[in-house]
Amino acid sequence: MVLTDRSIANPAQPVNRIVFTGDHLRLEGGGRTSATLETRWLANLLEYQISLTCPDAGSPPPIEVQIWDDPDPSHFSGDKFYALNGMTPCLGDWARLVDATEITDAAAEYLRQALEGSVVIGHNFTNWQLRFLNAAGIPYLDFLLHPARFMDDIFFAVRTNVPAMHNVLRTYACPEEMIRLQAAIHRASLLRGAPRDIPENSGLFAAQQGVDKSLVEGGRFQEIEDYREGIAAFVERHPYIYVKPHPYARLTAPVIAFLRALAGDSDRVRVVHDNIYSLVVEKNISEVCGISSCAIYEAEYFGKNVTYLSPARPMLYGSSDEPTDAFKCDPFKYVAIYDAFFNPTFWAKLLAPVMNVRACPDLQLAPKTNRLRNNLHVYWGYSYLDWEVPLRSIGIHPPPPATATPARESHQQGLRLYLQGSFNDAVECFAAAVVEEPTAERWNDWGVAQLARGRKREAADGFRIALALDPGDQMARENLEAMSRDSNGAAELQLCGPSE
Q1: Which candidate in 28, 313, 381, 449 could, as Cys together with 34 as Cys, close a disulfide (CB 3.0–4.6 Å)?
Q2: Which domains does the chain have, with CATH numbers?
Q3: pLDDT at 60
Q4: What does pTM read for this prediction?
C-alpha cells in the first residue's frame, strides 16, 4: 500500500468509536514498546471529557486503547504487524518504518481493520502512521508535548488530517506572543544574577537522548558523525563550545569526544551541567545547536540563533500564520493548545465534523500552575524557574550525573572490545577515556577504532589531536601517514594501549 501526505476531506467510513494509541511499534531495551504507558496516560487524562460529548446521555462512547500486546486477541498485535510487513520486531526495523511511504498490503489491511470506523487519538505518531491514516481515510488527532517547556504548565501541540477539525484547533491556539512573553519574564529573572565567565560568541551544543525518531534518516539511526558537516560549521563559528548533556541520556562522552576532535583542541569544547535556561540567557552564548532537542526550539524564544542538525524538528503554526483555506491544512503541522483539552466543549466542537456529538457543559478549570506537569511528574529543567516545585524533596528531580568511570579503566575496556571486534562499543569507551583525561595515546586509539567502523575523517581527527597533545607521538604520526597512503581505509593501524 502506498501511503500519502494528503489530508482527508471526510472519513472513509462513518465514525462510531474513538481509539487511543501511539507509536506502538517502537521497541526499547526490554524488547517491548515504550508507548504503552504514554498511551494509557493520555486516554485516562482525556476520556472523561470526551465521554460527556456522547450523544446518549449517561452512556460512555466506545473508547478503546490499542497497545502492542493487548490481551484481547481481536485487538492489535505488534508482532503480527511486523510479520505481515516482512519485518522483525527490533529497533532497526522500527527505524525503517519511521518515515516509510509504503507498507505491504497485508500489513495495511490488518491495521485498517483495527482502526476502521474510528477517530484515532495518538501520542507522538511517526510519519508512516500519519501517512497510513491519510491513505486509509481515517481521521486522527496526534498529541505531542509542546517543546516550549518553560510556561506556567506544560501543554500540548496537536495536529489532524481533517481540515474542519484543524480549523477548530486554530480557534483554540495558544498565541505565539504568549509563549514569548513568558520567556521574557523568565529572562528578566535569570539575568539578575552575575553573568558567567563565558567568552564572547561562544556556542552551546544541546545533547539529547540516543533513541528518538528525530535521529532516524533514510531508514536508520544516525550517529553523531553523520552530522559532521553541520557540527564542523558550528564549531568553526565559535571560539568555545559548551556541551550541555541531556539529563536522561546514557552516554554523552562520544558526542564530547567527537566535538573535541573536530575542534582540534580539547579546551575549546567544555562540558557544563548548569540549568539549560540559565545558559540560553547568557549574552556571550550567541548560538544554540543540536540535533533536534527541545532546548533548541526553546532557545529561539530567548532570542538566540539556533541550528537544527536534523530536519525532523516539530513544525507548528504560529499566530503570525495567515488563515488558510480549509482544504489546505497541513496534516504534519501542529497547533499549540494550552489547556482547552480539559474542557468538554472543546471536544464537542473538535469531534463534531466527523461524528455525532451532543451539547455538553462548558467546564473551564480555574488557572493553576503545574497542573499537567505535576500530573505527568515530568519537570526537566523547570524547577530552576519555579521554586514552588519541591522536586528534590519528593525524589523526582533528575539524578545528578553519574560518577565517571576512571579514564584508565575505560581505555582498557575499549581495548578489550576492539580486540573482540566490537568497534562501536570500543569507540564509546575510548571516548569516555579522552573526555575524562585526554592523552595522545587515548586519542590515537579512538582514531584507530573510528577507522575500524569506517569513519576515516574522524580517525584522522583523532590522530591529529593526539599529535597536538604530543607532537612526538610516533604511533599517531605513523597511523596518520598510513591513512594518507591508503585511500581505501584498509591501512594496518597501531593501538597504543594504556601507558600508565
Answers
A1: 28
A2: 17-173+317-365 (no CATH), 193-308 (3.40.50), 407-485 (1.25.40.10)
A3: 54
A4: 0.87
